[in-house]
Write a structure and sequence with these properties.
This protein is of the alpha+beta class and 342 residues long. It folds into two domains: 15-172, Orthogonal Bundle (Triger factor/SurA peptide-binding fold); 194-300, Chitinase A, domain 3, CATH 3.10.50. Helix content is 51%, strand content 13%. The protein has eleven helices and nine strands. The strands form three sheets. The chain has a four-stranded antiparallel β-sheet. It has a three-stranded antiparallel β-sheet with strand order 2-1-9. The protein has a two-stranded antiparallel ribbon with strand order 3-8. α3 (82-108) packs across α6 (147-169), α4 (115-126) packs across α6 (147-169) and α7 (176-185) crosses α11. It starts with a helix and ends with a strand. Residues 1-27 and 32-37 have low confidence and may be disordered.
Amino acid sequence: MKFSSAIVVVLGAALSMAQAPVASHAPTLTKAVAPPSVSGTSMQVTGKLVARVNDAVLTDRDLLREMFAIFPYARVHNGFPKAQEASIRKGALEMLEFEELVYQEAERRKMTIPPERLKRAEAAYRERFSNNEEFQQYLNVEMNGSMQQFRKTVRRSLLIDALLKSELDVPSRVTLADVRAYYQNNPKRFTHDEQIQFQTISIMPDEKASNEVKEQARKRAEEALRQAQATHSYEEFGILAEKLSEDDYRVNMGDHKSVERGTLPPEALPVLDKLKPGEVSGICRFGSFYAIFRLQARRPAGKVTFEQVRARLLEDLHKERYNSLRSALDKKLRTKATVEEL
């Protein structure tokens, strides 16, 4: 694998993980109200049905609201990323179906919400609006002007959250003893190879480019090296990388953060091994591409202590248990229901 190709693959995987729809549950009561339509997205709200869960129907308005809960940045970016919109829609629809199944199960169990709690929840939800006029507009658009429908919606949200608390939140809790046992029983997870943090400036002409284009790229690499060797800090090299580099890490000052030695392309290791922290390499050629390295830091192989990972492990194990229980609950509820996507 060419070094430049490895850069692209690693970054692409990171972005995919960052943008994938989350499977966990966000309380329905706190979800933002979606506008009737959003420019930049292929979805326009008309009130049409998108799914049926037993006798309940879910509309495209419900779906768009859930999509905003998954990807709230759509509000400021005039829509959802085209490459991610389908997966966001799929995740939102699955969440809508899950919530409806949970609500119907809560009703089947005849779960109740104390009147005072319902009243407090209604008041808390109304406080999210700047003024009464804004709340009335919400009622007209989302609840057909009906306070009764608003109260039903609040009650529905509370029932969903109550059932999920008993079925998921409480059973998925993790104790410090659980975390310590996991740490002791999985020693390999907490050992690490030598870690290397470095920055790059890459000049990347197309491999099929003409000789003239490749010659121009070589000259750009030589000029980039001249400027890189004149830098004296992480910030100076990073600013130059943002300006000159053609690899995807340019948006992060050319910084690859800490990477385990074993995950790096073999072609890069001889270059990095010769550098001391703060030093800049010469021009390194990988196929038709050119790269300049700056070593930021090395971290020797070792094992992280329990105290270093305790907080993260506590959170990770809780999420793992929660998601496992959620998946099992979803499967169980679906086996007893009729779910149809329209």
